[in-house]
Amino acid sequence: MKGSEFIRGVYSIANPQMGRTRADKPYLRCLIGDRTGDVPGRLWSLDDNFTMPPEGFVMLEGETQTYQGEIQLILKWIRPYEPRLEELRDLIPSSERPSEDMFADLVKMLETVKHPAMKALAQVYLEDEHLMAAFKKAPAAKSVHHAFLGGLLEHTLNLLNLANAVCPLYPKINRDIVMLGLFLHDLGKTRELVYDKVFGYSDQGELIGHVVEGAVMLHDKAHEVMATKGVRLPPNALLVLQHIIISHHGVPEFGAAKVPMTPEAILVSMLDNVDAKTCMALAETRSGHAANSETGGNFTEKIWALDTKLFKPDPLK
Question: Which domains does the chain have, with CATH numbers?
């Protein structure tokens, strides 16, 4: 979307709320988006028959404008809409790579794990068809990084590729633990997030969260390995893998239940941060849906998740 552009069509709507103007008149504020991203939406004139549209999809008409350096959409009218299946891909952000291709690459990476118990544990997860179907589809977050269908799988595959490159530099690191830890660290997001319409949090996500979900899931899968594969995990394997899951956010203020306390947990947390922040920065500066790309100037607005504004131009172009 650009400044002063007429818009009419089907879009997603998130976080619709009623606000009050300085003159104490009600107005609608929301986020309007499609697969390329979203922008703030405002409907200033509400008649007596106006009904708040629910999160999901809407048909609308409006005009974009620049306000305080950002694009926003001034709505003329808006109403709920149930999109056809073929319309959904244009409405919900999706990975540029097919999920099946990424999943095949991920399976090949996990096949490089050598310890029999770790291979058996990975296999138990991969054989869970319901979980893997969700894993292929889920975003990695509601917003911030890899917030698109297939984003969780893409993020996890990126991390496995990073670990494959980095682990040889540290011969004493336990590569199998790092690879399993990265595979498992965010799988709780398949239960934390909802992504059939606009992205949001499930009741489990609000009340429990993916860190605890992932640790509980691992406890159950460890018992399943023994029951179905006849393989017992080494005494500390379950403990350190659960520690990786609950510590991968690094510090408590970012959601970690514990700070990383093993070499493998430290590496997992740092690689997770590398991929999340790098992809976040690229999305804000070098992608077609960069929210600030149409507002001019060499810098974005402050990106709160990165605690800074970003220099947008590619320095060699």
Answer: 6-87 (2.40.50.140), 93-282 (1.10.3210)
